[in-house]
Write a structure and sequence with these properties.
The chain is an alpha+beta fold. About 45% of the residues lie in helices and about 15% in strands. The chain folds into two domains: about 200 residues, Up-down Bundle (Multidrug efflux transporter AcrB transmembrane fold), CATH 1.20.1640; about 300 residues, no CATH class. A five-stranded mixed beta barrel has the order 4-7-6-12-11, surrounded by four helices. Strands 2-3-1-14 form a four-stranded antiparallel β-sheet. It has a four-stranded mixed β-sheet with strand order 5-13-10-9. A hairpin with a 2-residue loop joins strand 11 and strand 12. The chain starts with 17 loop residues before the first helix and ends in a 36-residue tail after the last helix. The relative contact order is 0.14.
C-alpha cells in the first residue's frame, strides 16, 4: 500500500498554505498604515460630540400636494445650498450630509455662533435675478500689457454667456491707485443716478466724448445712495463675515451689494439693482450637453409669469454697455453667476460658456433650488463643549480598556497558551480598525463620535467570541481522542460556519440600524459593521493560519499543561489515538503435532 503524500492533512477542508494567508494580511496592514502616514492623517477625525461644536438636524417638508418633492436629487441640492451657507459663516471642517430620506445633519465645529448658524441653515434659500450696475475686484488685479484687466466674456448666439474658465479678472480697474479712488466713486454715483436698465434702455454709466475725466460732480443728495456707495467701497469680499452679511436684510425691490467669484476663482464685489425675477419664477434648470456645439450649457425654463419678467429684463439689458448688460444670479446674497445678455430671451434660455459637466450641473441645481417646493424644520440642536467631549472620550476609553482587560484576563486564565493567539488577533484587528478609521475621515468624512467608540468596545466581545468558538471546537476534537494537528483541521469547518453565521447576524443588525436611524446612532452602527467585517478577515487570514503553524510546535502539539490543550485537563485518558497508526505485525507459530 502506497504511503500518503507529504503535506496532505487528514482534513480536506483544512488550510494547506497558512503562510500565504498571513502574507496577505501583513500586506494589508503595511498598505493601510503606510497610507495613513503618507496622507498625514494619523489620527481618526473626531465628531462634534468629542471635539465640541453644534449639531443641527433638519427635516424636509414638502408643500401640500407635492409630497414627491422630497427625493434624492432635491435633498442633494439642498445639501449644496446649506454647505454654501455654512462656509459663509467662515467655519472650517463643517459637515453637511443627508441621513435617511428626509433628514439633513449639519455639524459645525466649535467657535461658531450657534444662533447665527441655526438661522442660516434653517431658512429657505432666496434666489433672485438682479441687474449689475457695476463691480470691482476685492483685491487689485495685476494689469496686463495694456495696463487694464481683461473684460468679462460677452454674449454670443441666442443665449447668455457664462463666465469662461480661461479669462482673467473680469473687472476693469485704473492703472494707478490715485485714479482708481476718484474714478470709482464717480462711476458709482453715475450708475446709481442713471436710470436702471429695467426702466429705460438708454441709460449709460459711460461718459461720451473725450476720455478726459470730468470734474467731480456734486455728491448725490439721497442719503440711501450715499450709504450704498460707502458700503460698496468698504466691502471686502475676502472677509467671510463681510461676504455673509453683504446682502442681509435687503428687500428684493431695493439695490444692494454682494460678493461672488469670477471664472478664475477670485472674489469680486457687485453693486446690484432691484430684483427683477424671483427664484420661484424658474420652472426648471439643468446642466445639459449640447451635441451640436459640443459643449456643456445650463438650460432654464420659466413659468408663464416668469417668462414675461425675464423677457422684459433681458430686452432692456441687451441694449446696455458692459457691465450693465449683465444680470446677476444671486443666491442667499451671493452672486453665483453674472452672464451677459445680447438679445431678448423668453420662457426658454440658456447660459453657455466654458462649463465643465460638474460646473454646469452645479449651476443648474442652484437655479432649480429656487423652484423647489421644499422647506426645512429644525428637529434638534445639540451643543457640546470641548471639555464635555473630552470627558466623554476619556470615560469611553477607560470603559474600553476595562472591557479589554477583562477579556484578556479570562482568555489567559481559561485558555492559557491559546490566549497568546487571541491577543495577537485582537492586536491585528485593532491596527486595521485604527488605520481604516483614520483614512475614512478625509476619504468619506467619517468622524469618530462617542457612539462609534461604543461600537468599537462592543466589537471586542464579538471578536473574542469568534476565537472562543474555534478554540472550543479544537478542544472537542481532542476530547474525542484526536491529536492536535488533525483536531485543528477538523474543527475549522464547523467553527467557520458558526463564526460566519454569528458575524452575519451582527452585520445585518448594524446595517439595519444604520439605514433606519438618524443622528449619532449611525456612528455606532457603522463602527459595529466595520469591526464585524474585520473580525471575519482576521479570523480567516490570521487566527486560523497561526493556529495551524503553532500546532506543529512541541509546546502545543504535545499538549503541554500550559498550552490550554492538555489532554489530561480536558478529560482525555491517555494514550491518545494517533491519526497514523503503524500496524503491529502478528506472527503465529505452528502447533506441534
Amino acid at each position: 500500500m502506497a504511503a500518503p503524500k507529504k503535506g496532505r492533512g487528514p482534513a480536506a477542508g483544512g488550510q494547506s498554505k497558512p503562510g500565504r494567508a498571513l502574507a496577505w494580511i501583513l500586506i494589508a496592514m503595511v498598505v493601510l498604515t503606510g497610507g495613513m502616514f503618507w496622507s498625514g492623517h494619523t489620527t481618526p477625525r473626531l465628531g462634534i460630540d468629542l471635539a465640541g461644536g453644534t449639531s443641527i438636524t433638519l427635516k424636509a417638508k414638502a408643500e401640500p400636494g407635492q409630497e414627491d418633492a422630497v427625493n434624492e436629487t432635491n435633498m442633494n441640492t439642498a445639501v449644496g445650498i446649506i454647505e454654501r451657507r455654512v462656509n459663509g459663516l467662515g467655519v472650517s471642517e463643517a459637515e453637511v450630509q443627508t441621513q435617511g430620506r428626509e433628514n439633513i445633519i449639519v455639524n459645525i465645529p466649535r467657535g461658531t455662533d450657534e444662533k447665527q448658524a441655526r438661522e442660516q441653515v434653517g431658512t429657505t434659500a432666496q434666489l433672485y435675478f438682479r441687474p449689475v450696475l457695476t463691480y470691482a475686484p476685492s483685491e487689485q488685479p495685476v494689469p496686463d500689457a495694456s495696463g487694464s484687466a481683461s473684460p468679462k466674456p460677452s454674449a454670443s448666439g441666442p443665449a447668455a454667456d457664462g463666465d469662461k474658465k480661461d479669462e482673467k479678472s473680469a473687472t476693469p480697474s485704473a492703472s494707478t491707485p490715485s485714479a482708481s479712488a476718484s474714478t470709482q466713486g464717480r462711476a458709482l454715483s453715475e450708475a446709481l443716478k442713471a436710470p436702471s436698465p429695467t426702466a429705460t434702455p438708454s441709460g449709460s454709466a459711460t461718459p461720451k466724448g473725450s476720455e478726459t475725466p470730468k470734474a467731480p460732480e456734486t455728491p448725490s443728495a439721497d442719503p440711501a445712495t450715499s450709504a450704498l456707495e460707502q458700503k460698496f467701497a468698504a466691502l471686502n469680499c475676502l472677509d467671510p463675515k463681510q461676504r455673509s452679511a453683504a446682502g442681509q436684510g435687503v428687500k428684493p425691490n431695493e439695490p444692494t451689494v454682494a460678493c461672488g467669484k469670477n471664472a478664475i476663482g477670485q472674489w469680486e464685489k457687485y453693486l446690484l439693482g432691484p430684483a427683477e425675477v424671483d427664484g420661484r419664477d424658474v420652472d426648471d434648470a439643468q446642466g445639459v450637453f449640447d451635441q451640436t456645439r459640443a459643449m456643456w450649457i445650463v438650460s432654464m425654463e420659466f413659468t408663464s409669469e416668469g417668462a414675461k419678467k425675464f423677457a422684459k429684463i433681458t430686452g432692456k439689458l441687451s441694449q446696455q454697455p458692459e457691465p450693465q448688460n449683465q444680470f446677476a444670479i444671486v443666491l442667499d446674497g451671493e452672486v453665483v453667476s453674472a452672464p451677459s445678455v445680447r438679445q431678448t430671451l423668453s420662457a426658454n434660455a440658456e447660459i453657455s460658456g466654458s462649463f465643465t459637466q460638474q460646473s454646469a450641473q452645479d449651476l443648474g441645481n442652484i437655479l432649480s433650488y429656487g423652484a423647489l417646493p421644499l422647506s426645512f424644520v429644525t428637529q434638534s440642536v445639540d451643543t457640546v463643549t470641548p471639555a464635555l467631549g473630552s470627558e466623554q472620550l476619556e470615560a469611553g476609553l477607560i470603559a474600553g480598556a476595562i472591557g479589554l482587560a477583562l477579556v484578556v484576563l479570562y482568555l489567559v486564565v481559561y485558555y492559557r497558551g491559546l490566549s497568546f493567539i487571541a491577543i495577537l488577533s485582537l492586536g491585528v484587528s485593532a491596527v486595521l480598525t485604527y488605520a481604516i478609521m483614520s483614512l475614512l475621515g478625509p476619504a468619506i468624512g467619517f468622524a469618530l463620535n462617542l457612539p462609534a467608540v461604543c461600537g468599537a468596545i462592543v466589537a471586542i466581545g464579538i471578536t473574542a467570541d469568534s476565537f472562543i468558538v474555534y478554540f472550543e471546537r479544537i478542544r472537542d476534537e481532542i476530547r474525542e481522542g484526536r491529536s492536535l494537528r488533525p483536531a485543528v483541521e477538523r474543527a475549522w469547518p464547523r467553527a467557520r460556519r458558526t463564526i460566519l453565521v454569528s458575524d452575519f447576524v451582527s452585520f445585518l443588525a448594524a446595517a439595519v440600524l444604520f439605514l433606519v436611524t438618524v443622528g449619532k446612532v449611525k456612528g455606532f452602527a457603522f463602527t459595529l459593521g466595520l469591526t464585524t467585517l474585520l473580525d471575519v478577515v482576521v479570523v480567516f487570514l490570521f487566527t486560523k493560519p497561526v493556529m495551524t503553524l503553532l500546532a506543529r510546535t512541541k509546546f502545543f502539539g504535545n499538549g503541554h499543561k500550559w498550552s490550554g490543550l492538555d489532554p489530561k485537563s480536558l478529560g482525555v485518558k491517555p494514550p491518545l489515538r494517533s491519526s497514523r497508526r503503524t500496524p503491529t505485525p502478528v506472527t503465529t507459530e505452528p502447533k506441534e503435532a
